[in-house]
Write a structure and sequence with these properties.
Helices cover 33% and strands 17% of the residues. By secondary structure, it is an alpha/beta fold.
Length: 127
Amino acid sequence: MNAMRAQLILAIRDPGLRSLLAARLGMAGEVPISTVDHLAPALGKKIRATALLIIEESMIDAPPAEWVQTLRDQCWKGRIIIISRTAERLAETDDTVTIRYSDAGVAIPALVQLWQAEHGKPLNSSE
């Protein structure tokens, strides 16, 4: 993986979706780390400070309006993609997006490629 690209964390419980995204991202040249626990000690502060987190809504222990703040409070400082089964979409920013579960297999690899190409440096770099 290019040192200038953000590390990808797939925090997805659904094995089918996790496998699909890992395969599609891998074919696009990414090397995702797959987990069913985004709070695992192995994903320390250094990883959380810069990684691009792709996470299922069911893994966030908060109401939808608090998802992003909850993840930020858990030290996820890089970009975040939340996969949602609900029809409600959250307010999006340059570094947080919600994507419907049904669109995830196509939308997420495309968005990751766009973000990686746009920034070409660690996502939270102060440079």
